[in-house]
Amino acid sequence: MATQPSGGGGGGGGAVETSGGGGEPATLEEAYTINVVPSELFLKFRRELQGLRVGINLEFFNYEVNDYEAKLVLKPSTTDRKWRFMYRPLHADLQLLSKKIPLTKYLNLQVGIGHSFHLNATGWKWKVSTSLGGDGVSQIRNKTKISFFPGFDLRIGWRAEYILPEIHGGMGTGEPTFNMNYGRLNASIDRIEAILTS
User: Fold this and answer.
1) What is the pLDDT of residues 25-84, one digit of tens each?
2) pTM above the 0.70 mark?
């Protein structure tokens, strides 16, 4: 699923409520939205060479301005890979990134060092990320991998922001005896990656 290029709301606003005295119940269209048009499309070519995985990534995003980027990626082919080397020719920069290091059950740390040929500068960066976000734990980001046949995989990055439904009420408190919040769900497919491996 960190800042997402596609943006998107969620959080606590906009829940639809009805009370026992009167309002119209929320329709499914108002309470639940699902966007199946991805904001990012990746085409990845991978090849295994002597214990290393060499990849070429073509990335397309921000349809309004047709942004694109190419990356050359080199990393160990073992499942426990600890580093990743990346070169972006359009930006003329090199990066060496560590794997995501678990800090807690939900938090990961990643560090890296890089050099920009345009700026003639070298620096380092770090990032703490999580699969949870938004309002507390009301947002989930995940990736689902589908293998169609050997050498071709599809990886779908999706996000769901939700507020769980709740029923509440009271007596002698000035509140309705029965009140219901129908909750809210905003789900979207943010990224589709087609991965070709030889």
Assistant:
1) 456 567 778 888 888 899 999 998 888 999 999 999 876 677 889 999 999 988 788 899
2) no
How do strand 179-181 and strand 152-163 relate by DSSP bridges? unpaired
Closest CA to 196 of 157, 142, 144, 155: 155
Name the nearest CA neighbour of 116 among 136, 143, 88, 97: 88
- In terms of Cα–Cα distance, which of 85, 112, 86, 88 is closest to 100? 112
Q: Could you tell me the two tokens for 107?
A: 């938090």
Instruction: Give the Å distances, CA to CA, from 107 to 16, 33, 157, 185.
Output: 32, 28, 19, 24
Neighbours of 161 (CB within 10 A): 21
